[in-house]
Design brief:
By secondary structure, this protein is α/β, with parallel strands linked by helices. It is 30% helix and 24% strand. Strands 1-6-5-2-4-3 form a 6-stranded mixed β-sheet, with helices on both faces. A hairpin with a 2-residue loop joins strand 3 (68-74) and strand 4 (77-85). The longest helix is centred in the C-terminal third of the chain and has 18 residues, at 99-116. The protein starts with a strand and ends in a 5-residue tail after the last strand.
């Protein structure tokens, strides 16, 4: 069993060798433009374009809560667009994160990471705009990824000053 490693830095720029999957949570309404996705889009245009096409063609594909789209952005780097958020707003219906969907997506991610022999890198998924609690997300990551021996690094974006 691996442990979850915590570091300060940018999850889009892991400083490790080998195959890497950068994972993040997306919403189920096709919105891309706030939060961690901005860092992803600054670095690579492909994940946003793939997500938008996936959402646009959702009537004929697997787009929906719990689904994962893997986008290769460099020879040894993949981005995992994980649908783990219902809508985009916190309101009367609670926070947008859907823990069950995040858990499902992490299971799919674990299978792919194992197949690729990849390490996984992510911000504190589901806890920014999705409104989730890390105390509920962290055990999902530990169970689906770390327990299977997949190296996971969680990035806290710190001040550079």
């Amino acid at each position: 069993m691996s442990e979850i490693r915590y570091v300060r830095g940018d999850a889009t720029a892991p400083s490790v060798e080998g195959v890497m999957v950068i994972a993040h949570v997306c919403n189920d309404v096709g919105g891309w433009g706030k939060g961690f996705v901005l860092a992803v889009s600054r670095r690579w245009p492909e994940p946003e374009a793939a997500y938008r096409a996936w959402h646009r063609d959702r009537a004929s594909n697997d787009f929906g809560l719990g689904a994962v789209q893997f986008v290769r952005v460099e020879p040894y780097v993949w981005v995992a667009n994980m649908i783990g958020q219902r809508g985009t707003r916190t309101g009367g219906k609670g926070v947008p994160v859907r823990y069950e969907a995040v858990g499902m997506a992490l299971g799919v991610l674990a299978d792919r990471a194992a197949e690729l022999g990849a390490s996984v890198h992510m911000p504190r998924i589901g806890c920014g705009l999705a409104g989730g609690e890390w105390s509920r997300v962290e055990p999902l990551i530990a169970d689906r990824l770390a327990r299977r021996g997949i190296p996971v690094t969680v990035y806290d974006h710190g001040d550079t000053a």
